[in-house]
Write a structure and sequence with these properties.
15 strands, mainly beta, five-stranded antiparallel beta sheet
Length: 205
């Protein structure tokens, strides 16, 4: 699961890397947390969207509560009603410099950062849609963790090569898209830090 990632490069530079139109002005980038805006490559352009699909909640008396951003979509759940339409019609790419996992004991967890060797920015598989609650929003697709994640977590973002990224957004085949959702086989750089892991996690479905 991923509840924090980093994307600090200017959006117009990222647009050139992905071969898409430069974005309209927007507030995104830096360290991205669930519910925060991030850059998303979809429909031939890069746009700012909220990280997380809205999960509508109700209180004990049936009163509406603030929606919760569901920022991770498990590969084995992509056929569920919550994700199916976006998986079939809204696959996108999420530009990422590095993603973080929490390490250490409860109450004293720190950040460990993972990046792709030789790639200042890589593409993570995502889904996007429009929502009444958040406007345009996106989620990151999760698969089983590769060996580099170690015992920090059993899942990781689906990382795509350049060729796989094109197939992810262009294919109309659900089976072909699912075949791309596998642990990253090419190795990751790992940076363990003493920086506190201070924000609570969001949801995964």
């Amino acid at each position: 699961m991923c509840n924090l990632y980093r994307m600090t490069k200017p959006a117009d530079e990222v647009a050139r890397m992905f071969g898409v139109e430069a974005p309209a002005p927007g507030n995104a980038g830096g360290e991205v947390y669930p519910g925060y805006p991030g850059w998303v490559v979809a429909d031939g352009r890069i746009s700012s969207m909220a990280w997380g699909f809205p999960l509508v909640l109700k209180g004990k008396k049936g009163q509406p509560l603030k929606p919760k951003p569901v920022n991770n979509a498990r590969t084995d759940k992509l056929g569920s009603p919550f994700w199916r339409h976006a998986f079939e019609n809204g696959r996108c790419l999420i530009p990422v410099e590095a993603f973080a996992e929490a390490a250490g004991e409860k109450g004293a967890k720190t950040r460990s950062w993972f990046s792709v060797p030789g790639q200042p920015v890589f593409a993570a598989a995502g889904l996007w849609r429009n929502s009444a609650e958040f406007g345009p929003c996106y989620t990151m697709v999760m698969t089983q963790a590769c060996a580099d994640i170690g015992d920090l977590h059993d899942r990781m973002p689906v990382i795509l090569t350049q060729e796989e990224a094109a197939r992810w957004v262009e294919t109309s085949s659900r089976d072909e898209a699912l075949s791309l959702c596998r642990p990253w086989p090419h190795g990751l750089c790992v940076e363990h830090t003493a920086q506190a892991w201070t924000r609570s996690s969001a949801a995964s479905r």
